[in-house]
Design a protein that fits this description.
CATH class of the largest domain: Mainly Alpha
Helix content: 40-55%
Shape: elongated
CATH architecture of the largest domain: Orthogonal Bundle
Largest sheet: 5 strands, antiparallel
CATH superfamily of the largest domain: MetI-like
Radius of gyration: 29 Å
Length: 403
C-alpha cells in the first residue's frame, strides 16, 4: 500500500550519485561485500589457515583423500634443527616453518623413558607399524643452532636426569599429542584442503590485481597517445592493437610463458600483457570524443603541456568505462590463470592454485570424492561471478543517461 520513497540524489556529486545508484543494486552490493571478505581472507592468509607451513604443504601420505570432518591424532616430535620464528608480518606473507614432525598415530603408550606409538593406517583390519621414541627426543632438539651435539635430557638408562620421566610424560601429553580435525578433508597428498583453498584466494586475487594494473598502465598510455595525437601515432598504435587482437589470448600467454619460463611472477606479467588491447581501444575512443571539448581547448589556450592536458584534464573524464572493463578483466584473468595452471604452465606446485587443485583431482570426479575437484571449481565460479556482477553494477551506476 505504501511505497518507499526514492531518495532524491539530484544535488549530489557525480561520485556520490554513482555510489548511491550502485547501492540500489542488491546483487552488486552482495558481490561487493563478498569481494571485501575475499580480500581480507587473501591478506590474512596464514592467520586463517589450519596449516601454517609455507604454501600449506604439510603432507601426510597416510591421510590421503580423507573425507570432510576427518579427525586424527598426531605425535609432535621436535626437529633437530634450529628454526627461527618469523615476525607477525613475515609469517602472514610466507608462513611459518613447522618445528615439529607431525606423525599420524592410532595409539600410544609410555614405557620407561620411551613412548611407543602405533602409526596410523587407513585399513581397519590391520595394525600400523609400532615405533619407539625417546621422551627427550620428542620434547627437545638434540642439536643447537651451531650444529653441536648437546646432552640429552634423559639418557637411555635413566641416569643424569635433567627432567624426570613424569615431567616429560606430562609435557608430551599436554603439548605433543594433538588431535587435528580436517574440516574439508585432505587432498591426494594428505594436505589440508581448507588451508590450500584459503591460500588459493591470495593467488587468484594477486593475479587479477597485477594483471589489471599492467593492462591499465599499458592500455591507457597507448590509447590516450593514439586518441590525442592521432595521425601517424594513431595509425601505428592501431596497427599494433589489431595485430595483438587477432591472436588468441591463451596462445599469447602460452608463448610468453614458454619464452620467459614457468614461475609465480611470469604468469602475472603474461596475463597482464594480453589484456591491454581492449583498454587501449576504449581509451582511444573516449579520448577522440573528449579532445575537442571546450575545457580542453581552454587548457591549450592557457599554454598547458600536452602531458598535463592528457593526464590531468582528459583522463579523469574517460575513466568511468575503464573501471567497468577492469572488473571484467579481473574475472578473465582469474579464469586464464586457472586454465593455465590446469594445463601445467601456470603457477607451479607446491604453490596452491585453484587450477592446479582441479588438475590434481579431476580423476576423482567419477569416484565418491568428486568434491576434491568441485570445491576449487566452485571457488573459481564464485570469484568470477562476483566480479561480473560488480562490473554490471558499475556499468549501471556510471551510466549518466539513466538519470
Amino acid at each position: 500500500m505504501f511505497r518507499k520513497k526514492k531518495k532524491d540524489i539530484s544535488g549530489e556529486s557525480l561520485g556520490r550519485k554513482a555510489w548511491l545508484r550502485f547501492k540500489q543494486n542488491r546483487l552488486s552490493m552482495v558481490s561487493f561485500w563478498f569481494l571485501i571478505l575475499a580480500v581480507f581472507v587473501a591478506i590474512l592468509g596464514y592467520v586463517l589457515t589450519p596449516d601454517k607451513t609455507p604454501f600449506c604443504n604439510q603432507q601426510h601420505l597416510e591421510l590421503s583423500t580423507k573425507k570432510p570432518g576427518f579427525t586424527c591424532q598426531f605425535l609432535l616430535v621436535r626437529k633437530n634443527t634450529h628454526i627461527e620464528k618469523p615476525n607477525f608480518f613475515k609469517s602472514i606473507i610466507q608462513g611459518t616453518e613447522n618445528p615439529y614432525y607431525e606423525i599420524p598415530i592410532s595409539n600410544y603408550i609410555f614405557k620407561d623413558n620411551f613412548i611407543e606409538v602405533e602409526n596410523y593406517t587407513s585399513k581397519e583390519d590391520s595394525s600400523g607399524i609400532k615405533k619407539n621414541y625417546l621422551l627427550a627426543d620428542v620434547c627437545f632438539a638434540l642439536r643447537n643452532p651451531n650444529g653441536k651435539q648437546i646432552k640429552q635430557s634423559v639418557d637411555i638408562h635413566g641416569n643424569n636426569l635433567t627432567h624426570t620421566s613424569v615431567e616429560l610424560i606430562q609435557k608430551i601429553e599436554q603439548k605433543h599429542i594433538l588431535n587435528k580435525r580436517f574440516l574439508l578433508g585432505t587432498d591426494r597428498y594428505g594436505r589440508d584442503l581448507l588451508s590450500r583453498l584459503i591460500l588459493g584466494t591470495r593467488i587468484s586475487l594477486s593475479v587479477g590485481f597485477i594483471a589489471v594494473l599492467i593492462s591499465l598502465i599499458v592500455g591507457i598510455t597507448l590509447g590516450i597517445l593514439a586518441g590525442y595525437f592521432r595521425g601517424v601515432i594513431d595509425d601505428v598504435i592501431m596497427w599494433l592493437i589489431n595485430v595483438v587482437w587477432s591472436i588468441p589470448t591463451l596462445l599469447i600467454v602460452i608463448a610468453i610463458t614458454l619464452v620467459m619460463g614457468k614461475g609465480f611472477w611470469v604468469i602475472f606479467v603474461a596475463v597482464g600483457l594480453t589484456m591491454w588491447v581492449e583498454v587501449a581501444r576504449v581509451t582511444r575512443g573516449q579520448v577522440l570524443s573528449v579532445r575537442e571539448m571546450e575545457y580542453v581547448e581552454a587548457a591549450r589556450a592557457l599554454g598547458y603541456s600536452n602531458t598535463r592536458i592528457m593526464f590531468r584534464h582528459i583522463l579523469p573524464n574517460v575513466f568511468s568505462p575503464l573501471i567497468v572493463i577492469s572488473a571484467a578483466n579481473f574475472a578473465s584473468s582469474i579464469l586464464i590463470e586457472a586454465g593455465l595452471s590446469f594445463l601445467g604452465i601456470g603457477v607451479q606446485p607446491p604453490i596452491p592454485s585453484w587450477g592446479t587443485m582441479i588438475k590434481a583431482h579431476y580423476g576423482y570426479i567419477i569416484m565418491d570424492k568428486a568434491y576434491l575437484a568441485f570445491l576449487p571449481g566452485i571457488a573459481i565460479m564464485l570469484m568470477v561471478l562476483t566480479f561480473t556482477l560488480i562490473g554490471n553494477g558499475l556499468r549501471d551506476a556510471l551510466d549518466t543517461k539513466s538519470e
